[in-house]
Amino acid sequence: MLSHRSNEKEILDLGPDYYTEEEFTHCQKMLYRINKILGFFHGTVNVLKTGGEKAHVVDVGCGAGLFILNLSRYFPKMTFHGIDISSEAINMANYEKSVFRSDTSNVKFEKMAEPKLTFGENSVDVILATMVCHHMSNEEIIAFFKQALYTTKDKVIINDLHRNSIAYWFYRLFSQILFSSRLITYDGLISIKRGFIRQELITLLEQAGMKHYQVKWCFPFRWRVIIWKK
C-alpha cells in the first residue's frame, strides 16, 4: 500500500463544494497546531536564522497564514508574502492577520491566479513550502522546484511528510481519538500515503536539475529539504 506514492485526492483538494466553511476554518487552525507539534515551525525558524535578517520570504500554499504570521514574531524585520490558489484560504489569512496580537505590517497575503510561481528571476530571498509538495504530482513537483530556484536569490525550504507504515498505522489508530474533523483524520491518512521516501525526493531534485540541496529526515516522520541557489 505504501510502496508507491498515492494518487488519491484529499477532500481539501476537491474544493469548497466538498466541505463547509466551519470545517475549513477548524481544519486550518488545527493544521498549524499539528505543524508546530511535528516540528515544522521551529525547524523553519532555525533555518531562517541562518539567512539575512531583512529577507523577503514567500510562503507557497500559505493556507490560513498562521505559519508566517507566527514567523513574523520571530523575524520582525523580514517581509512575509503568503500566496495560495484558494480564495477561502486567503480570506481566512487576511482575517487572521486583522486579529493577530502582534504587528503584522510585514505580512501580506495574495491569491494566486494559477497554481505556479509567476515572480521574476531572483525576486525574493526565500521560498517556503510547508505540507504543499505532497499535494502535487511528480511532474508538478519537478516544475515547482525549477520555478522556485529561478525565483529565489538564496534558498528554497520544503517541509513535508515521510511516507512510512509506522506513521500511517499510528495515525490511523489515534487520529479519530485526537481529532474530530474528517479533514484532519481522512486527509491526514491520504497525506501520509502521498508523502515521500528519501530516494524519491532525491530523484525528483535531480530530475529538476537541482545541484545544491540537502534532504534531512527529522523526527517524527518528516522531511526538510533545502535547495540553495549556489
From TrEMBL:
Keywords recorded for this protein, A-Z: Methyltransferase, Transferase
Domain of life where this protein originates: Bacteria
A single MF term (Gene Ontology): methyltransferase activity
InterPro entries, A to Z: Diverse_substrate_MTase (IPR051052), Methyltransf_25 (IPR041698), SAM-dependent_MTases_sf (IPR029063)
GO biological process, one term: methylation
Ranges where the Methyltransferase domain occurs: 57-151
PANTHER family linked to this entry: METHYLTRANSF_11 DOMAIN-CONTAINING PROTEIN, METHYLTRANSFERASE TYPE 11 DOMAIN-CONTAINING PROTEIN
Name this protein carries in UniProt: Methyltransferase type 11
Provenance organism: Psychromonas ingrahamii (strain DSM 17664 / CCUG 51855 / 37)
Lineage: Bacteria, Pseudomonadati, Pseudomonadota, Gammaproteobacteria, Alteromonadales
